Structures are given as structure tokens and as C-alpha cells.
Amino acid sequence: MAGLNKGVPQPTEIGFHHSPFPIHHSFMKTTDFGYQTVPEDEKPRRVAGVFDSVTARYDLMNDLMSLGLHRLWKRFAVAQSFVAPGARVLDVAGGTADLARLFAQRVGPQGEVVLTDINNAMLKLGRDRLLDAGMLIPVVQCDAERLPFGSDRYDCVSIAFGLRNMTHKDAALAEMHRVLRPGGRLLVLEFSKVWQPLKPLYDAYSFGVLPRLGQVVANDAEAYRYLAESIRRHPDQEQLKRLMERAGFERVEYFNLSAGVVALHRGYKF
């Protein structure tokens, strides 16, 4: 299991933690929620509602809608982290702890893995699954735009399928850059822009099949309609690369997975 370091919130401390480094946002008052335009302060509540609704069936839906490929995408991301035994890893928006479990196996008992998420229901499920796997890992509920961790602390920060839901992606990326030590790397695994010849089929699946599947399995078609819409509003591969570079990351590159349905971006802090 991953080691616990002094000063890191302990596994039982699922409560909202705030960063000592406040982020000042622009004066823009609206943002996207799927294809809708909503007040900025309303988006976190709406996103929370989506995840509260689907938590119990979240992993099952991931398996069904990706035909199990999400597990391979996550394993590829962890392999591309190149973290070694003893490393410190922060998993942001880690939900049900798929990446945290894989990272804990890599860093070993001398390392440190911290699981965070803004959603309490998802975080509790992730914590329980870690405990079931015999892993005692710090679990912290916090906003990725205001991470409650010191600067220059982690060897690797990861975020899988979470950046898309954030109101201020630039602020979240800046916070991830801040907590990385020099030489550390950020991994962003996220839905992206599919290979153009596949777009008509992918769109038909996203807007036709996914909401129906969500209704049958999770009793929530709207949550999976939001998923399809939010993917289209998220920056594509090159746009996200530039966004990471503006946040201070260097040597940013990306790997297209499953014909661009998903992309893994990796950037370094020097």
C-alpha cells in the first residue's frame, strides 16, 4: 500500500479542503454546461448533480459504453507516467480510484498516492474500493482549481476524465503545475476529437445510444447526454496542448487512443 506522509490529510478526512493559494478568475460570468450556457457559479452544482445521480452505476456504465477500453486507457496513462517506487503522486478528480490503485501498486509502500475529488459521493466510493483492496491511501475532497497542497511537492499529477467538467480549466492546470516539483509531470487523460472519418458514427453512438444506455442502466439519460455534449465543448488535442503550455508546462505531447476518442496529454514542469 502507499505510504502516508506527515502533513497529508488522512483517509478518514473526507471534508472540503481549500488551497492557501487563491486563484483570481476573469470577469466572465457564464460558462458552458454541455451545450447550455449557465452562470459560472451554477456549473459546479450541475456537475455535482450529474455525478451524484450516476455514482452507484458509474463503473458499470464506463465498462458498457467503452466496451471495457477505459481500463486499458488508464493503464496506458499510468505506464506513461514513468513513476518509480517511492514517488509521490496526486490523482485529481480521481473518482472511484482506478488510477490511484494503479499508481499505488507502482510507487510501493515507500511512495505516496493522494486521491482527490470534488464530489463527496464519488470520493467515498473510491475510498471504500481502496480499503477493499487493502490500500490505505489519503483521500481529500477538494476543488482542483484550489488544491490544498504545498508547492513543488509531487512527482506526478494525474487527472482522468475530469478536466472536461471544470469551470476554469486554466486555473486547474495552473494549480496542478504549482504542486508539481521541478522535473515532475502532468498526465491528462480525456475524451478528445475523434478521427474525422469516424465522426458520423461516433456522433450517432454518442447522442443516440449513450443516453438510452444511461436511462436503462443508471436511470439517467440526461447525465449521459451531458457527457456527449461536454466532450464536444472540450478543447481538442492541439487546443489542450496549447492550454497546458500557457499554464507553464513544457515538452507537452499527446497520444491519441482509439482513433482519438480519447487522448493522453503529458507535460513537464522544469
Can you characterise this structure?
The structure is a single chain. With 270 residues, this protein is an alpha/beta fold. The chain has a single domain (16-192, 236-268), classed as Vaccinia Virus protein VP39 (Rossmann fold). 40% of the residues lie in helices and 22% in strands. It has nine helices and ten strands. The strands form two sheets. Strands 1-6-5-4-7-8-10-9 form an eight-stranded mixed sheet, with helices on both faces. Strands 2-3 form a two-stranded antiparallel ribbon. Helix 2 runs antiparallel to helix 7 and helix 7 (199-218) runs antiparallel to helix 8. The radius of gyration is 17 Å and the shape is globular.
The SS-based structural class is alpha/beta
Number of helical segments with 4 or more residues: 9
What count of domains describes the coordinates?
Answer: 1
Strand content: 15-25%
Task: Give the radius of gyration.
Answer: 17 Å
Question: Ranges with pLDDT <50 over ≥5 residues?
Answer: 1-13, 22-26
- Major β-sheet annotation: 8 strands, mixed
Query: Order of strands in the sheet with the most strands?
Result: 1-6-5-4-7-8-10-9
Oligomer: single chain
Q: CATH homologous superfamily?
A: Vaccinia Virus protein VP39
What percent of the residues sit in helical stretches (DSSP H or I)? Answer: 40-55%
Shape: globular
Entry summary:
The protein is an alpha/beta fold.
